[in-house]
Amino acid sequence: MIARRRRPLAPRTAQVLASAALWGTMAAAIAILIAILVFVLGQGLPHVGWTFLSRAPLESGRAGGVMPILAGTLEVTGLGIAAAAPLGIGTAVYLVEYTRDGPLTRIIRFGTDCLAGVPSIIFGLFGFVLFVITFGLGWSILAGAVTLAFMTLPTIIRTSEEALRAVPASYREVSLSLGAGKWQTIRKVVLPAAAPGILTGLVLGLGRAIGETAAVIFTAGSSLPHVVPTSLLEGTRTLSVHFYQLAREGISTEKAYATAAVLVLAISLINVASYAAMNRFMRRYR
Amino acid sequence: MTTSPKLDVRALDVRYGRVSAVRGLDLAVPPGSICAIIGPARSGKTSLLRTINLLSLEIDGAEVDGRILVDGEDILRPDTDRARLRRRIGMVFATPQPLPGSIRDNLVYGPRLAGVHGQARLAALVESSLRAAQLWDEVKDRLDLSAFALSGGQQQRLCLARTIALDPEIVLLDEPCSGLDPISTLKIEETMRALRSRFTWVLVTNNTKQAARVSDRTAFLLGGELVEEAPTAQLFTAPRDPRTGDYVEGRFG
Question: Among positive and negative, which fits the CA dihedral A169, B144, B173, A183?
């Protein structure tokens, strides 16, 4: 007996179906993104004005603005990324350039992958116990920044590693064959070629850090700052924590959405600015 | 009286783990000459070449026995300054390998690391090395253009110029014309002939006709061993070993 087989689709039909399906997935993803942006900005932007951006919050955030909160957020995340970047990039350079694949690198890579999967509230708890209590930093920008650095480190290591691995082996061989040492080769050829990928990792890490709530609520605290924090040992409240408090305590829906809009705009601005800077750099380099 | 060889390979073994790529190889190259190395795939040509500038040790994890004498000095000794050695022994790879950056950037990369500074000196070096590689007329007005914008043949001549810019003593060429158009191949061969006496050339090639055209002496490798090494005319017309004759006449490989 001859088994009946389904007749295959004509190649042209399959092609049309595939491109329609792929277009559909792309459109759905973009639509979700746009829906969120439109919703948040639509609810929030009407309440964002110069006063909101330049004033301190009043009455627990029911009135006034978010100036010290915005500044504190940028301080915590900026400091966190500034601490994590050299550590993460250095680790990636070591893994890619100075070790051959072996048990050690596999363990390190497995460890960073596990670290990347740890929920941020665990980082918050860890940071609270270690930095806030044991090191006696209290709820502070410093404790929050170091915790965020720990949290973003795996992302930065893995993306930098991928970026370094994507640099053609021939670049290294050519550089060595022209009389460069190993470190000169890394500094002058490999790192510049990997820079766009490394920057993507930093921006991803920054995005994750700036919107982080759970890790900072335990470490930087949640008390409302009334002036821009000037000491690393002062506590602060970040934008996302502020949004959480305003919404959860039912203090002010308007101010909550306005805060969310500022957060979204800040992240977008950072993204655009980093890629613009990278484009300028690459034009000079290519 | 014979002059002492510029490059003298003695009883060289190259292994990658358990895989042996070169076995007991002896080869002497007189100064100011072109030595062609021919042989089928996996005959050890490239391993030999990459060991002469120590790339196989640093990149491929090769283990090496034997000696490689450059001006009588064994470069396989562990205390060899690799960066300095590679300035003396330049290399052009099988596929054109410009570094990201402009034509000028590519040319001044090595000299800068070697301590050559000053705009005027570097500019003179750029011009003289591009002229030597017969590329100057094609690129003199666009030295700041990306090296990737050049054609494959131009890129390979840029790589040759980049090697020449370091004023090496020995130039290693690893199948430099394997993917090139006939004009670029011709220009690279002309460069070799014109600069024959200035450098000592070692040319690995899959193209036996190219070996016959440009080289003074030719070595035939098979399975990691040297089968025969002789003046080129003799090796092609009256080989001592029948396998050499079979290979150069295209009966295998």
Answer: negative
